[in-house]
Design a protein that fits this description.
The chain is α+β, with helices and mostly antiparallel strands and 396 residues long. Helices cover 67% and strands 13% of the residues.
Length: 396
């Protein structure tokens, strides 16, 4: 019952902090999240399609009729799908029965194709993901679902509004990262010595990453203008801090790996402490460093593959176009930013290892903390039994 009360209190406090952060940043206004009054976006089902020539050279066009639901009523509209061979936007062709998104910028007088509906498949995949988390993780899986939801809300409802409203990106990126780390570890792993050690180690790694980004900002000469999104942001606000956004995204991007390492070290040293019946601080610190040496390689590879995989089209373009000119390739800003993300994240991981090991060495050697670790170990064994039972039921 005590653990349930602590978990409920952690969730409630996390939600309250999230709401307070949103009010502090936005003042309670949702204006930044709303489309203009004369803009409409609707899901539509295509009923009829007719090809015709476009108004410009090299343009293909389709007239189509679709059914939408607007203000609670079903309506049939006429819309236009167009494609210019000279434009970078290459929409999918549409057929009768397709579900698409249509838009109107004049209050519903004229409608245009925007995108195919893809959110339905995403929702199904998300439900499967959450279901698998709960099935295999049981109570901890449910806590993970809650923490993931709060993490996304923290980025969308606090960090992004802070960026758009001209707040200090460096400060708010660190605040959001610390919130994510504390919230996730307290909800998923409780508020015991292990979570405390992981929180301190993770926060230290994030602060080191911030320090590295501030120092590199002095001599990297970045502009942040690396794509169409940056151009659109400057159109909205000519004084937008694109460089700050780059570094803020680097800090938020590495917090997951840093937190993972902090938890690995603190959990491993917790197990070592319990099996040894207690250990001295020097032994725990050295053990943490030894464990960390095995973690470094896989975590760095994780960051490298994650960032390369996320920007594979850009990487292929860089190598294909500039494969014979390394000077151009390794000074191209988009590629430099990707490499910077990998290096800053990896350095954050490296500094997290000794920080977490040192905190565990101090905390785990205290008699009261050792008692709490033993109590947590008992609850962990119960969860392992539940997990084993679930696997047996699945096999049956």
């Amino acid at each position: 019952m005590k653990n349930k009360i602590i978990s409920a209190a952690a969730v409630l406090l996390s939600v309250l902090l999230l709401v307070a952060g949103w009010f502090f940043v936005t003042g309670g206004s949702t204006a930044g999240y709303l489309v203009p009054d004369d803009s409409l976006y609707c899901r539509a089902k295509v009923l009829w399609v007719q090809e015709h020539e476009g108004d410009f050279v090299g343009e293909e066009a389709l007239d189509f009729t679709a059914q939408i639901t607007l203000d609670g009523e079903k309506k049939t509209i006429d819309a236009l799908w167009s494609y210019s061979s000279y434009a970078s936007f290459n929409p999918l062709p549409i057929e009768v029965g397709d579900r698409v998104v249509v838009s109107s910028y004049d209050g519903g007088e004229t409608w245009h194709y925007t995108e195919h509906v893809r959110s339905d498949a995403l929702i199904v995949l998300l439900v499967i993901f959450f279901g698998a988390l709960i099935l295999f993780g049981r109570k901890k899986g449910l806590k993970t679902v809650v923490s993931l939801t709060l993490t996304v809300l923290a980025v969308v409802c606090v960090f992004i509004p802070a960026v758009m409203l001209g707040k200090n990106i460096y400060i708010w990126s660190v605040l959001v990262c610390v919130y994510i780390a504390v919230m996730t570890l307290c909800i998923v792993n409780g508020t015991g010595p292990m979570s405390l050690s992981a929180i301190v180690g993770c926060s230290g790694g994030v602060l080191v990453s911030l320090l590295i980004t501030v120092v590199t900002d002095l001599f990297m000469n970045l502009t942040g203008q690396t794509g169409d999104g940056a151009v659109y942001l400057l159109t909205i606000n000519p004084h937008f801090d694109l460089v700050g956004l780059v570094y803020g995204s680097i800090i938020i991007g590495c917090v997951g790996a840093v937190m993972d390492v902090a938890v690995d070290i603190s959990a491993s040293l917790k197990e070592l402490t319990l099996k040894m019946g207690g250990a001295d601080a020097k032994t725990l610190f050295r053990s943490g460093l030894n464990i960390g040496r095995d973690v470094i390689g896989t975590m760095s590879n994780t960051l490298v593959l994650a960032y390369i995989g996320g920007s594979m089209s850009s990487v292929v373009l860089f190598i294909y176009n500039f494969g014979t000119a390394p000077v151009q390739l390794f000074n191209y800003e988009s590629l430099v930013i990707e490499i910077l993300c990998i290096l800053v994240g990896s350095l954050g991981i490296l500094f997290t290892l000794p920080l977490t090991s040192a905190v565990c060495a101090v905390v785990y050697t205290r008699p009261r903390a050792l008692e709490k670790l033993r109590a947590e170990d008992g609850s962990d064994e119960k969860q392992i039994d539940e997990y084993t039972e679930a696997l047996e039921n699945i096999s049956k």
